[in-house]
Specification:
The chain is an alpha+beta fold. It contains 9 helices and 22 strands. The strands form 6 sheets. The protein has a 5-stranded antiparallel sheet with strand order 20-19-18-21-22, with helices on both faces. The chain starts with a strand and ends in a 42-residue tail after the last helix. The C terminus is likely disordered.
């Protein structure tokens, strides 16, 4: 879907494939938008959809109904007629089929077949560090594939929240519509960054990692609860608010040595190893004195100061590396002087990493796991993983893989070529302030445009 037109009278351009078995039959349509609504599907997933109005013809009676636009190509039925669209006097008998007669596809027999024409995407890279390795690599990978990639500083964005015309401003200038957004949100900007991401989603942009998934990964307590609910192995973890529970916390993770982590720690900061019970009590009391939120976690000694970073893109581990802490350090982060080398991971480790990213709802994730005597244990799931270490260690074009995955997810509009059915209105020919009607292929605006 592609919104356009003035703010007070927005329109939406969309593509339909009326014949399920023939995706080369493609019709570009446009219609005035009457609303935008959040719709929850039968599997519990919510989506903000554009709403248009069209006429329905049943049993010789016609009346207008509202249609929400979404991609249903992977579903059994391209269109569902809800109960609110059914008028009085009409009876639905679930035991009968084709009561109105079976509709054929002959009307499209002379409609021009065509291959989908992919257009360049306009991509926003949300980052406050446009010159760092990851940001530059993503921009170059996008441009190498013919796309336009722009660096957007999250902190300089402001939002105009409106039902039909949500807007994002950058230093006071309204941003154009982006096809896709790659969030690279720093920990200090998590809350505001999530708001900006949600606003981009309202404009119809595809978000590589949704706001809710980023928020879940940044909250270490919630992240571990999600992992536990999904049955994914991780070090024993404990959390409590009362200072009276210090001894209980230590016992819940099997005693010292143990690790104390701030809930919003990144790159190894705010992570302390307590070798003894007394040291653990002192660290926990000190964190409580600072009114800091933290978790206490089992120390996996057999890991030997090493962890495995699995880079997950679109439900697949595309690269992996082993990070080893320096001799006097237990944290293996490269920012802490750790070293990295290529590693071959086991099928169990691969499956665990994919499940962890899925549990968070992340399309792109850096999943850190430990090799323990009882199998892989998830240490952390990073929603903005760095590319420098993983690309140099694995020698893989991870940035390119990310862009290729994003291309497969973004629904592009392919406008029909010059050969057209007589009477069809070409959406691109009309000025944006002109009211466009649904393109008619058979004289009736009854195309399967959505739910």
């Amino acid at each position: 879907m592609e919104p356009f037109g003035p703010d007070d009278a927005p329109q939406v351009r969309f593509v339909i494939h009326p014949i399920p078995s023939q995706p080369d039959v493609e019709i570009t349509c446009a219609a005035p938008a009457v609303d935008r609504r959040e719709v929850t599907s039968s599997n519990g997933e919510s989506e903000l959809r554009w709403v248009i109005e069209a006429m329905v013809d049943v049993g010789g009676r016609q009346w207008p109904i509202e249609l929400t636009l979404t991609n249903r190509e992977s579903m059994n039925y391209r269109m569902l007629l809800g109960r609110t669209a059914i008028r009085d006097g009409i009876v639905v008998n679930p035991a009968d089929s084709y009561v109105q007669g079976k509709i054929g596809y002959k009307v499209y027999s002379d409609y021009p077949r065509q291959k989908p024409v992919k257009r360049p995407l306009r991509i926003a890279i949300l980052t406050r560090e446009p010159t760092n390795y990851s940001s530059k690599r993503l921009k170059k990978a996008a441009e190498d594939r013919g796309h336009v990639a722009e660096m957007i500083n999250t902190a300089r964005c402001s939002m105009g929240i409106n039902t039909l015309s949500p807007a994002i401003y950058y230093d006071g200038r309204r941003l154009p519509r982006f096809d896709a957004v790659i969030p690279r949100i720093g920990a200090s900007m998590t809350n505001y960054g999530m708001a900006v991401i949600r606003q981009f989603a309202m404009t119809g942009a595809y978000i590589l990692n949704p706001a809710a998934a980023i928020g879940a990964s940044r909250d270490k307590l919630y992240a571990h609860q999600l992992l536990a609910r999904a049955g994914i192995g991780m070090p024993s973890t404990a959390f409590a608010h009362s200072p009276k529970d210090t001894k209980t916390l230590i016992e819940l993770v099997g005693g010292a040595p143990l690790v104390v982590k701030l809930l919003e720690s990144t790159q190894g900061r705010g992570v302390v190893l307590a070798d003894t019970k007394k040291a653990a009590e002192s660290v926990i009391d000190a964190f409580r004195g600072l009114e800091a939120n933290f978790i206490v976690q089992e120390f996996v000694k057999e890991a030997g100061g090493a962890d495995i970073r699995c880079f997950v893109v679109g439900g697949k581990v595309v690269a992996a590396m082993k990070r080893q802490a320096s001799a006097d350090e237990f944290r293996s982060n490269l920012h802490r002087g750790g070293t990295a080398e290529a590693v071959k991971i086991t099928p169990e480790e691969r499956s665990t990493a994919v499940k962890a990213a899925k549990a968070m709802g992340l399309s792109v994730a850096g999943v850190d796991l430990l090799r323990s005597n009882s199998g892989p244990k998830i240490l952390e799931v990073n929603s903005s993983p760095g590319l420098e270490g993983i690309e140099r260690t694995s020698e893989k074009d991870v940035a390119g893989i990310i862009i290729e995955y994003m291309e497969s997810q973004v629904q592009t509009v392919s406008l029909p070529r010059t050969s057209r059915r007589k009477g069809a209105l070409k959406a691109s020919d009309a000025p944006e302030n002109t009211e466009l009607k649904v393109i008619e292929a058979s004289g009736k605006a009854s195309e399967e445009a959505g739910e």
